[in-house]
Specification:
The chain is of the alpha/beta class. It has 2 domains: about 120 residues, Rossmann fold; about 190 residues, Rossmann fold (3-Layer(aba) Sandwich). The protein has 11 helices and 13 strands. It has a 7-stranded parallel β-sheet, with helices on both faces. Strand 1, helix 1 and strand 2 form a beta-alpha-beta unit. The structure holds nicotinamide-adenine-dinucleotide.
Length: about 325
């Protein structure tokens, strides 16, 4: 039986893995702790580790795992920007769950967009306090607006379909435009200039780090709405805050945040928030922050558990299944 160490485990992760664990020849130990240089010793005696988005899989963690004879890092997510692939090469195999529910993430992006432009988050609080005033609640129609989608992979394309259902004009930018997709591709600069709403669906790489920054914001329409359900560091958070303050940015929907690893997924309600930029962004009436929850649907959790355990099983059976990250 394969022994697996799962890090940063929350009750909903555990429930999804426990529901199907019996279908595989595995024994999973669920650790609450994040995988870091300090906690990597917990992986002693296991065959593989199962990290999530905010676990640290840098060169030192990889060396520590390899020295414990661990052969596999089975990420239970799609993005792998938290893994030092160069360090992993020839030492340890990295696998991921490339797709578990593009609908979960794309639908959350639209939910955030609708919330911020129609102020439903404010309405919920007001009416609970029997405040039925509509002052300050004026929104705008999505119908007829131009949405710029950066990254037209699995999630971006579902988001495009949703936007089309709302009667929006969709333009897109991707380094690898999808052929015969009927998507109107434009240059990144044209996307910045024409979009009323910009939604990010590309991975975080060296090329996309701080794609939205003080410089690129200058080219955007005044009052543009930015939606980020991809990775926090696609946006320079300080520059975004300045853009919000100067009114250049009309609103921002952030499911991810550059420094989220220190706070997301945990309850800090009784603590002083140390991150001034995050605290200031959250204090803005036109910024909506969710805690990297776009993936969090029953369907996605079940698919993540299934594919992760299939990845582990295939790897130890000597099979490649296409989910290896190189
Ligand atoms: P995907 O691989 O199917 O699509 C990514 C697209 O981005 C591809 O078409 C690719 O060509 C494009 N791309 C790559 N580099 C680019 C660049 N420099 N500029 C523009 N486009 C570029 O990935 P996906 O499944 O659609 O996921 C997209 C991202 O969503 C992931 O990278 C991940 O970071 C994020 N994600 C977030 C959550 C969440 O819960 N918030 C969940 C899953 C995925």
């Amino acid at each position: 039986m394969l022994k697996l160490a799962m890090f940063d485990t929350k009750p909903y992760d555990r429930a999804a893995f426990e529901a199907i664990q019996g279908d595989f020849d595995v024994d999973i130990k669920f650790f609450d702790a994040n995988l870091t240089e300090d906690t990597v010793s917990l992986a002693d005696g296991y065959d593989a580790v199962i990290p999530f988005v905010n676990d640290t899989v840098n060169d030192r963690v990889i060396d520590a795992l390899a020295s414990r004879n661990i052969k596999l890092v089975a990420l239970r997510c799609a993005g792998y920007n938290n893994v030092d692939l160069r360090a992993a090469k020839d030492k340890i195999t990295v696998m991921r769950v490339p797709a578990y529910s593009p609908y979960a993430v794309a639908e959350h992006a639209m939910a955030m967009l609708l919330t911020i432009i129609r102020r439903t988050h404010k309405a919920y609080i007001r009416t609970r306090d029997f405040n039925f005033s509509l002052s300050g609640m004026v929104g705008f129609d999505l119908h007829g607006k131009t949405v710029g989608v950066i990254g037209t992979g699995r999630i971006g394309r579902v988001f495009i379909d949703i936007c089309r259902g709302f009667g929006m004009r969709v333009i897109a930018y991707d380094v690898y435009p999808a052929k015969d997709s009927g998507i109107e591709y434009v240059s990144l600069n044209d996307l910045f200039r024409q979009s009323d709403i910009i939604s990010l669906h590309c991975p975080l790489t060296e090329d996309t780090h701080h794609l939205i920054n003080g410089y690129s914001m200058q080219y955007m329409k005044k009052g543009v709405v930015i939606v980020n359900t991809s990775r926090g560091a696609l946006i320079d958070a300080e520059a975004l805050l300045s853009g919000i303050k100067s009114r250049q940015i009309g609103a921002a929907c952030l499911d991810v945040y550059e420094e989220e690893g220190d706070v997301f997924f945990e309850d800090f309600s009784g603590h002083i928030m140390e991150d001034d930029t995050l605290a200031r962004l959250i204090s803005m009436p036109n910024v909506l922050v969710t805690s990297h929850q776009a993936f969090l649907t029953q369907e996605a959790l079940a698919n993540i558990a299934q594919t992760t355990l299939q990845n582990v099983t295939d790897f130890f059976a000597g099979k490649t299944n296409g989910n290896e990250v190189r």
